[in-house]
Amino acid sequence: MISIYEYQDYRRYLKDMLQDVKKERKALSQRALLQKMGISSSGFIANVLAGRSNLTISQVHKLSKVIKLTKAETTYFELLLHFNHAKSTEEKTEFYRRLLEHQRSKVKVLSAEQLTLFSRWYYAVIRECAYFMDVSDYQKLAKFIVPSVTPAEAQEGVETLLKLGFLGKNEDGVIVQSDPIISSGDEVVSFDIINFQASTLDKARRALVEVPADERDISVLTVTASDDCIAKIKEEVRLFRKRLLRIVQDDPHPDRVLQCNINIFPVTQKAKEIR
Predict the structure, then answer these.
(1) What does the pLDDT average to over 162-191?
(2) Is residue 43 within 8 Å of residue 112, measured between CB atoms?
């Protein structure tokens, strides 16, 4: 069955789901589905798909039961309904936030051993390169990375990623990514990650001078904030990272690797700490 988490429009989900059900569960016709939901109008679904009618929360629950959605999927379906029916910008924003919170993107959280990925800044770059190019050509790979590494470093990086399971070989023997999206998990702290983050900050500093402005986006905000405000900002950033991963997942033709750094840190003491 298709995944409801891939949708932000319940009408599109309903249309695709019905087509999927027709192929996978031939015994469940659209008429039978309506009967199970207690709906007598044969044109009900057509009207919903055309936007002439809306689903209700009660109908979402009945439909979810018929097509055997999990409790979490049903909750997402409800949020989708509220998001699509929201009238104000404030309502739209709130339900969009909650949708992101409930989405299940294909992210693999790393084990302690796999955090070695961050011990060299170019390991993560090589892993992403494997998505669209032959990383077994170490001379070409070394020159492709910016700033360039040596062919020996490129080879060592590929071999390490194969050993850790970040890269694998397909049936044709071509080196490919083992998992599309990976994460260290929220707020994970390790020596390797700290060094990795520090090295990417250094790359960002160099990018200010070496990368054309139309190929980068580096901006700075200096703002005031309380502890509660900081917590809200961190949550917004977390949701943004989640949305960014989904945008990347949906990119059909990637041809380069980007480093995205988001930094929030205090540049003063708290006012009450000053005596």
Answers:
(1) 79
(2) no
